Amino acid sequence: MVEPDPTRYVRAFATDLAWVQQECGLVFDPLPTPLRDLAHRYLERLSPDKAQVEWCLPLWLGQAFGVETAVARTMALTNVLGMLYIRMQNDGMDGDVSPAEAAYLLTLSPLLYTRCVSHFTTLFPAASPFWGYLEAYLNEWAAAVAWERERHWLKLEPYTEAEVRWLTAGKGAPEKIGCAGLALLAGRDWAIPHLATVMDLRSTIAQLFDDFCDWREDWQRGRYNVFLTMVLTDGQRHQLSSPTISDLLEAIYHSKRVVELFDRADHYAALARQAAVHLECEPLLMLCDKAVSVGRLYRQMVLDGREQMLLQRFSRLADNGWAGLADQRR
Known about the structure:
This protein is mostly helical. The chain has helices spanning 8-11, 14-28, 33-45, 52-65, 69-94, 99-123, 130-152, 161-171, 175-185, 191-213, 215-220, 226-232, 245-254, 257-277, 282-303, 307-314.
């Protein structure tokens, strides 16, 4: 079996990505020095090799749907600026930055959002259904992050599968904005539900893999993610009000639900592929195949009894998304 390689679809759009990078610089460079430097740091963390969907999805869909290159590039630019806005908002709300940096983020992030809206107004008239999708997807994101903070910060509260699907789809909902926009610009409104299904499932898979890799950091911050709640609700472990690192390692070692997590990811990837087939966009199919490949690798490591190797790899894999072991998102 040939290993799926989504990075070749990044290299194929190198010229377009360079244009997007240059345009981001034109947005950032007039800003005051602290804001400009902060914006560039966030952009480096969101480079095309690490964040393929954020940079390339509008370009992939533009090519598949026959959208003009200039329009697809503009949508890619809004996608990158929009994802930077979301990341800055998340970091500021989550307390993952210093108070001084959080203040800069509060100043910088609205500037990126207004720039996105400015570009959108050149592509979509006021009566376009695009604006309804924009509002709906941002509302989904806001509801999801508020719910998770209320239910799973400093609380060992298990997730139902329905909650996982709803939460992860909501947290990734901003990525659907560009998808809906490209479909509308191409006159392919029928594609929007299929795109939404693919992106919702993609977000769920990414969250499962991230929670698996980031469990230590999340636990240290008092955030009980999906993976942690799965292993800690085996047996009587859910009665632990404040589990120690030893409790967590023992739970991970003995839990049979680790395999269940990867089985879920496999199932979700298959559903995503079914929806992606309708879109005739080969890079999306390749990402689905890569998700299956990564999930099965992790699963087999557990089944082979190599838990210690698995634990040692957690820190090295902590930044991996669903696109693959080499495709780090930060």
